[in-house]
Task: structure prediction
Amino acid sequence: MNRSDIRTRILDGLNDSPTNPRFWSFAQINSVIDEAQEILAEEAGAIMRTAMFSLRPGKQYYYTQGIASDVMVPYRFWLTNLNRRLVVINTVELDFTNRRWSDVTSTYPEYWFPISWNLFGIYPKMASGSELVRMDYIAWPRSLMDDGDEPEFRGVDQDAMVLYGIYDGLLKRWDVNSANMILAKVVEASVDASARSGIWRADAREFRHSQTTDESYRTGIGR
Result:
């Protein structure tokens, strides 16, 4: 569906004219569609993208905004030259292994760890040189540009956007009982979309051995 199709279905669900609505302007409905996109993306993690960035010598922490402006949360990192995936870890495990882990350097990192919603770290940090890293991440959706533009979500998940638009319209009419009934369907559709997104992320995983002759990772953190 494109934006025009979604808007028409929302107005049909509100028993309003899709060509000349009485209670909403097209701009208001379009704004609700963009809001529905953001909510569905946040609840379901349905939009997955990839960005590339370079590790710098001595640098341990990286802000996601410096890599891509639409990052919601990263979920996988690959060293492209070695074809190796960084293992996720947390700072408690690092502290248990070495209280001075922030001082450790190496030729290549082996782990990554989240700090906050927009900050992550790598361990060990690189002593010298640089390394290209591929970051796979859950992304925020882009706004639809015109009526012919289509959302990035799979077609089966776009029904949740229509339901959210109807829900928002019912609230603006103070029809709380009907709105609550639609909200239950929105939640159900979001759960289904989240399950489908999880399956797609699992299918996208790649477990590959390095094609280089370099040694295996050596820090020996217990997992």
In short: The chain has a mean pLDDT of 82. The chain has two domains: 3-45+142-202, 48-139. The two ends are 45 Å apart (CA to CA).
